[in-house]
From TrEMBL:
It comes from Leptospira langatensis. One of its GO terms (cellular component) is endomembrane system. It is found in: Endomembrane system; Endoplasmic reticulum membrane. It is a multi-pass membrane protein. This is Mannosyltransferase. InterPro entries: GPI_mannosylTrfase.
């Protein structure tokens, strides 16, 4: 029997676990999900760089992005430096910890919303509905995607708590008609849009709820208030660009213009491309079965605002030709909220059995994926290479074979800049890299980087180039490479060869104040 005291205790346990796993993920997983994720770090870390002021150098932030996400990340990075973290890696970990702790508010919002929606029920006490708030708390805390994406500097994941908060107030408004709740719902949605502009489509979802309620009650006041609130919030959210860039909503206008002209250059996908992602995130195979006694209408009529928000957001992103899985992250907590009644049903149904294969496999797969995503670094090959160069300042020239390194995350280091960073297209007949102007007797500080697939294909330099280090990928990335080697070859291991013919020059212990490379 689940009583109020036990439920509150389990909520606090799940909340504590969610925060603890987020902090652990922030510390042990130093990777980033996408280049957009990294570029926010790039403009913020190392915090001691003179070119990375808190808000004074706003020109460094791309015109198509709001200033707010970068200002927040830069603020955390500066705080980490002021309290004594000089290593860029420690600064990045501090930023990730702060983001993880702040994102935990989604757990509390989700629990309070589900508790509000499902607290009044005339069904039997042992019905599955009493478990929905705790199941939602579990999913928001320990679903395999949440700790990792919640701790990255992604504008998508940073917008998620505000969208969830907007749904909370929209749900209260939907039930009570309180205009104050309508304002707060729209206000939080406006903040979410400052992080991820596409979150603004949820304003259309909220407006549809307002219009429907106004028609039902034959009152137009709510529509007028919505329009007034919208005008006020549009003005307020345009002020940062006006103050720092001299143009009202310049980032939004630039973003729309850029995507209209360049979106298709990043690839196009069919409208249904997100379906496998959604099914995978839901762990769909474990939800297949007969739903005897599941009250679909009673369960999901309470979640109408969440359903409308999610539906509008998904419909817009399904229409847009260019699709990436991370584009759905703003509504990931919403999806987990909508999943809660179904998971609660199976939790309660399978609890009657002494041994539940379904429940065992659900937890096994979820926590296995949680461990792989949370504690193994994504982009580990290039990050470890940069960390190696950070500690081996004797290396002053880096040569890269062809496209072995499409992107070098230099924010993970703070050292004397490299003298050279050049591409090498071929090896000669002696298995030596063809480097223009290369003097073997003055190149003890040179290093050559070759990707694993090239090495396996025969690109293995002979002495005096000596293999000094191997920077491996994470298990998930290695698995991705095995599934699609051509598409994911950039994720394979990297090999560093160092030139050893001449006498090794002594390492210069001094470091300049410039950023990296």
């Amino acid at each position: 029997m689940l009583n109020i005291r036990n439920e509150r205790r389990w909520f606090l346990i799940l909340l504590g676990l969610g925060i603890a796993v987020r902090i652990a993920t922030a510390i042990f997983n130093k990777g980033y999900l996408a280049l957009d994720d990294y570029y926010i770090l790039f403009f913020s870390v190392p915090a001691q760089s003179e070119s990375l002021g808190l808000v004074d150098n706003v020109q460094s932030v791309p015109e198509i992005r709001s200033l707010i996400p970068d200002a927040i990340i830069r603020f955390f990075a500066k705080i980490s430096y002021l309290i004594g973290f000089t290593d860029p890696l420690n600064q990045i970990q501090f930023v990730f910890v702060c983001l993880g702790i702040l994102s935990a508010i989604s757990i509390w919002i989700g629990y309070e919303l589900l508790k509000y929606l499902y607290s009044e029920t005339e069904e039997e006490p042992k019905n599955y509905t009493q478990w929905i708030p705790l199941v939602g708390t579990f999913l928001l805390s320990l679903h395999f995607l949440m700790p990792f994406v919640s701790t990255r500097s992604l504008i998508e994941s940073m917008s998620a708590p505000f969208i969830l908060g907007s749904v909370y107030f929209a749900s209260v408004y939907w039930r009570s008609g309180d205009h104050t709740q309508l304002f707060w719902s729209l206000a939080l949605l406006s903040i979410a849009s400052l992080f991820r502009f596409q979150a603004g489509i949820c304003a259309a979802a909220l407006f549809s709820l307002v219009v429907y309620r106004s028609i039902q009650e034959r009152k137009r006041k709510d529509v007028y208030l919505f329009l007034i609130y919208s005008v006020v919030l549009v003005i307020l959210t345009g002020l940062p660009d006006l103050v720092f860039r001299g143009s009202f909503h310049s980032s939004l206008r630039s973003y729309i213009s850029y995507n209209m002209h360049h979106s298709s250059e990043y690839g196009t996908s069919p409208w249904y491309a997100y379906l496998p992602t959604i099914l995978g995130a839901c762990l769909f195979p474990f939800l297949i079965g007969k739903y005897d006694g599941f009250h679909w209408k009673a369960s999901y009529s309470k979640l109408i605002p969440a359903l409308v928000y999610y539906g509008f957001f998904l419909a817009l992103h399904s229409i847009i030709p260019h699709k990436e899985e991370r584009f759905l992250l703003p509504v990931l907590p919403l999806m987990l909220l909508l999943l809660s009644p179904i998971v609660a049903y199976w939790w309660r149904k399978e609890k009657k059995r002494r041994i539940s294969i379904r429940r065992f496999l659900f937890f096994l797969v979820n926590f296995l994926l949680l461990g792989l995503l949370s504690f193994f670094t994504i982009q580990n090959n290039t990050i470890e290479l940069v960390r190696y160069l950070n500690s081996h300042t004797e290396i002053k020239q880096v040569y890269v074979y062809k496209d072995s390194i499409p992107h070098l995350p230099v924010s993970y280091a703070y050292r004397t800049p490299l003298e050279k960073y050049e591409l090498v297209e071929t090896l000669d007949e002696n298995q030596q890299p063809r480097i223009k102007g290369f003097d073997p007797y003055k190149s003890c500080s040179a290093a050559l980087i070759v990707r694993k697939d090239y090495v396996l294909g025969g690109i293995d330099p002979d002495p005096p180039w000596i293999l000094m280090a191997n920077f491996k990928s994470s298990p998930l990335e290695e698995f991705a490479v095995s599934l699609n080697p051509n598409k994911n070859k950039r994720r394979t291991s990297l090999y560093l060869y160092q030139f050893q013919l001449c006498k090794q020059a002594e390492e210069d212990p001094s470091k300049t104040g410039s950023a990296v490379f």
